[in-house]
């Protein structure tokens, strides 16, 4: 049986990533942030989202990708977590894509580093790969 | 007429009105349901009427009781489906309920009121109507009909039918009753002859028994019944309330609580029929009774006991009061009623007087309502949001110059503040709610430890936010346990030391500067500092070297270290080596501090300071490297600003660590930018202007260097997200007026990360506020000033706006007065020495110490020779002063100090200062 699910997609350093559309609360453009000195590196800052304070996590840093070129503003993908909303900073937002489980494959063992834990696998779309991000693990950060 | 009686009557009135209010709608619902009526609802109505009946009977309100009794019988029939809720039945019940309401409203005349019409109507339903409805009722038990007794035990309510709400109500009520019984029993132990207390116990147990009977909780009913019997005997003077009896009463209170717990969990009163306990109570009663009445038979007296309650009340009552005025329209009670009730006239009179107080406040039931705590929490959150929105709008005021907007925002500001205060008040609870369980705890613990301990409480009414009350419950309990177990000596030891054998544990609570102070004092042995030192080394918590350099004060606080316990043997009370550190952590978690002071042989005082509320706190906003941070006002001591020359001279270095001499003491400095890792070298010290925020962490002071000090603001505290929980330098986040997020600094965490709190320097300041003195005057925070070679003056720190050092050569003259240009305004100067006619000795220095005072937008500078210190002290040895400008003389830090009346001093120089505020 083929199970389909909807993924909300976005781009990071040229790669296409996706998270379960169900977990996404909203997508908003870049917001001014308050930086948090001494916080884990991936925490970019705090956003006031209509009175709710949301921690923004830069997925580039989180995944060990190279930093965004200066001048380019990230987008916020606000996802729900058991500790309230968390914003994931991404380069660019993509479409919501319906994917089939038959195209899914777990990541190869050669995948290393932080990405190894955070990428659950890849959907083989026509012409490109869609990497499925483990959202829960991505927002799990412990102070250095 | 005693106050207790008036109180009782008032309580009864409130309760009854509450019951009656609900009954009306419930009866109407029953009528609309007709034959499909909800039995649980009938139960609710029945129970309400039954409560009124019971209480009325106890208080000698015979007319009320009689009417309630009849109404109850009708409801009983309804309940057993022997009657249908026809409109006639419901109408009659409604009328009876209305009449009951009237009677409760006019308690003083209720016994003379005419209820014959209503009694007859109810009677008619019981006799006539029941015959005519027989046909439509499947089962009619003739004998049951004939027996017109209320006999709650006659029917077995279907427990499953009983609504959750009714059950919860019953449980809440019963727990309340039980708590009252426990409190009263403790009082009774001290004053075994107090009749009002005994009455109260009896009444509460009786209520529990009544409800238990109605709800068919037979074990509960039996336990409360035998308990009531014993109390009845004590009431009627058959034997006294000695230790054995009260022990027995406590046991049954515990048993009742266990049963209630069991009802709470699975709706049954437990599988244990408690026969042992019941037999035990009965045997105590029999034994006591025999001892007191060697020649009589037990049984007859035992059953009589409860009935004698009302009659026994009379001795406490004063002689019959003047006859109560009767409204002419109300004839005397009907013969049938007097025959049934025939109340002793005394109890009628007893009801008369307090009733006026009930009446005076209007319908008492209208003045209180019960509200779900969740709703209050929600309101509080909303108010928090409103405060944020208000702050945001206030910001526009500075950018948009519009009068209409200005006045509107000012109103918004005012209303928001009031609303915030109001909502906060609804969540306030007196600390007595936590303390109330301590007398029992102390009593039981003392018995286990074979000690004699008396507990005293001061400031029970001090109010705290509900969440804080909950948070301090466990730490306080732990501290009280510890005090009884470790603090207070055994009677023999105390005697040896010449102290009374009974130790005293004092709980004290009071408000001070937006915080609540709670003290737990004992007059026990005090801490054994040597043993604590040895233990700390033995446990590897401290090195021998560090311990030997420690001041006594710090040694005492070692017991708050994790894994510390000096108890030689682990008792089942305390001493497991966990606890004190948990106490400390828990209190710090809610922004509080714990401090311990101990005097060997004299006792220990543990002082807890906690904020009133957690949700909205006053904070100082500072800027560092263009980011704003909030510092809770609680940690703030003072602000110091160094400019130009002062900066270079004021900051000195000890092996790379910057310090500042604050009134002669070295204040370690911490650069916020450096601490947060924003700038790696502690630069900024070469700048022209340095802002130092003097903070207190764990009794140490340190100066935090920030770029700019913005303002004080009320901030709404929001918790840190999971990702930031481990960052020790922050305690939360908040949203500023412009909508941006700011971090709240955790001063304690900051001090730890900067290694400020690992030192052992003793702070002499707080030691001067020694509280072991029996004088319990309030602690004042005073600024101590020096003038001339040896004169000292002090004034409340609240009157001080700023402290400044002003160069003498900047002083100019205007209007025959010395003035300086200060922050774009003209600041008139007042030389304290000249004004008070005391010699001054600073004429040769280049800088003047100036205390800036501001009132209604106008400022004045008070020139003094020295700023000596800021002290927190009690004002003891006060002596009124006779000179204008001074209020009292007192001894502060061992010096005679005059307390300044600053407004009077200013008036001496400028009489118009307070009269015409500047029109902006």
Q: Strand content of the residues of chain B, in percent? A: 15-25%
In quaternary terms, these chains amount to heterodimer
> What's the mean pLDDT score of chain A?
88
- Major beta-sheet overview of chain A: 6 strands, mixed
Shape of chain A: globular
Low-confidence runs of chain A (pLDDT<50, min 5 residues)? none
Let me know the number of strands of chain B. 30
Count every helix of chain A, treating DSSP H or I runs of 4 or more residues as helices. 3
Give the largest chain-chain interface (CB within 8 Å). Answer: A-B, 27 and 23 residues
Largest sheet of chain B: 6 strands, mixed
Strand order of the largest sheet of chain B: 10-14-15-13-12-11
Major beta sheet, strand line-up of chain A: 8-1-2-11-10-9
The overall strand count of chain A is: 11
What's the alpha carbon Rg of chain B, rounded to whole Å? Answer: 35 Å
Tally of helical segments of chain B: 31
Helix/strand order of chain A, N-terminal first: EEEEEHEEEEHEEH
First-to-last CA distance of chain B: 60 Å
Residue share in β-strands of chain A: over 45%
Q: What structural class should be given to the helix and strand makeup of chain A?
A: mainly beta
Taking all residues together, what is the mean pLDDT of chain B? 75
Helix proportion range of chain B:
40-55%
